[in-house]
TrEMBL record, chain A:
Lineage of the organism: Eukaryota, Viridiplantae, Streptophyta, Embryophyta, Tracheophyta
Pfam families: SRP9-21
Keyword entries, A-Z: Cytoplasm, Ribonucleoprotein, RNA-binding, Signal recognition particle
Described function: Component of the signal recognition particle (SRP) complex, a ribonucleoprotein complex that mediates the cotranslational targeting of secretory and membrane proteins to the endoplasmic reticulum (ER). SRP9 together with SRP14 and the Alu portion of the SRP RNA, constitutes the elongation arrest domain of SRP. The complex of SRP9 and SRP14 is required for SRP RNA binding.
Key word Ribonucleoprotein present: yes
UniProt protein name: Signal recognition particle 9 kDa protein
SUPFAM superfamilies according to UniProt: Signal recognition particle alu RNA binding heterodimer, SRP9/14
GO molecular function per UniProt: 7S RNA binding
Chain positions covered by the region annotation Disordered: 80-103
UniProtKB/TrEMBL annotation, chain B:
Region named Disordered: 95-136
Main location: cytoplasm
GO (cellular component) term, any one: signal recognition particle, endoplasmic reticulum targeting
GO biological process: SRP-dependent cotranslational protein targeting to membrane
Alphabetical list of SUPFAM superfamilies matching this protein: Signal recognition particle alu RNA binding heterodimer, SRP9/14 (SSF54762)
Family per similarity comment: Belongs to the SRP14 family.
Entry function: Component of the signal recognition particle (SRP) complex, a ribonucleoprotein complex that mediates the cotranslational targeting of secretory and membrane proteins to the endoplasmic reticulum (ER). SRP9 together with SRP14 and the Alu portion of the SRP RNA, constitutes the elongation arrest domain of SRP. The complex of SRP9 and SRP14 is required for SRP RNA binding.
Subunit structure: Heterodimer with SRP9; binds RNA as heterodimer. Component of a signal recognition particle (SRP) complex that consists of a 7SL RNA molecule of 300 nucleotides and six protein subunits: SRP72, SRP68, SRP54, SRP19, SRP14 and SRP9.
Name of the protein in question: Signal recognition particle 14 kDa protein
Biased composition (Basic residues): 98-108
Record-level Gene Ontology MF annotations: 7S RNA binding; endoplasmic reticulum signal peptide binding
Keywords: Cytoplasm, Ribonucleoprotein, RNA-binding, Signal recognition particle
Lineage: Eukaryota, Viridiplantae, Streptophyta, Embryophyta, Tracheophyta
Localization per Swiss-Prot or TrEMBL: Cytoplasm
Length: 103, 136
């Protein structure tokens, strides 16, 4: 059992884990209102990835992960999840930001 | 998870209603678990049969929820999962509110309504912002 600190890392590794074994993997959310705690887990019964938080902003992030898993589990491990994960794919343009051709 | 308590298989909307009451009944103590799993909803034997017969197997997203007293489940197909997804998000947003909110700026939320302090000098200050569309 590994608690991952970085949200993005948790998401990336969870998706990878699921894609590697879509039949065995499951995504679990546990919420305790009395403690104000949220724990997420993705496991294939061998590897176990976990993320815990008490922050409301993480619940917002979790919504995207929920959507990712809905898509993957219904449509399959090869499904395109770019929409579910939000179009925040900031592809940094290779060009320099400054306008100036330096040759 | 222990097998005590009832287990019911529900349609998506009744599932969401039951999930809502699970949240409502576990505010002072206890937890609510929700699990997602990809499933063909068929036994391994049935799947093998279908595969050897060359039949395509439809997969669904199985969603289970429990509060340790009872367990409910539903399954979603490609046709109805997006609708469920939206409703599910609404349920979570409405009930998962004991998490800490981070106040970035000290925004004093006073009871005053937004008073637009219109100064006597009603200047129509048109900021001449020249539309600089730098086109290369």
């Amino acid at each position: 059992m590994v608690y991952i600190d970085s949200w993005d890392e948790f998401v990336e590794r969870s998706v990878q884990l699921f894609r590697a074994d879509p039949h065995s993997s499951r995504y679990v959310m546990k919420y305790r209102h009395c403690d104000g705690k949220l724990v997420l887990k993705v496991t294939d019964n061998r590897v176990c990835l976990k993320f815990k938080t008490d922050q409301a902003q993480d619940a917002k992030k979790m919504e995207k992960l929920n959507n990712i898993f809905f898509t993957l589990m219904v449509r399959g491990p090869d499904a395109d999840i770019s929409e579910a994960s939000g179009k925040e794919q900031n592809e940094q343009p290779p060009a320099k930001k400054g306008r100036g051709r330096r040759q | 998870m222990s097998g005590t308590g009832s287990r019911s298989v529900l349609q998506p909307d009744p599932f969401l209603n039951e999930l809502t009451s699970m949240f409502e009944c576990s505010t002072e103590k206890g937890s609510v678990w929700v699990t997602f799993k990809r499933s063909s909803m068929k036994s391994k034997a049935a799947r093998n049969k279908m595969q050897s017969a060359g039949q395509s197997i439809e997969y669904r997203c199985l969603v289970r929820a429990t509060d340790s007293k009872k367990t409910i489940s539903t399954s979603l197909s490609a046709k109805d999962y997006q609708k469920f997804q939206a409703s599910y998000a609404t349920v979570l947003k409405a009930h998962m509110n004991s998490l800490k909110k981070r106040e970035r700026k000290d925004r004093k939320k006073t009871a005053e309504p937004e008073k637009k302090q219109v100064s006597s000098k009603s200047e129509s200050s048109k900021k001449q912002a020249a539309p600089t569309s730098k086109s290369s």
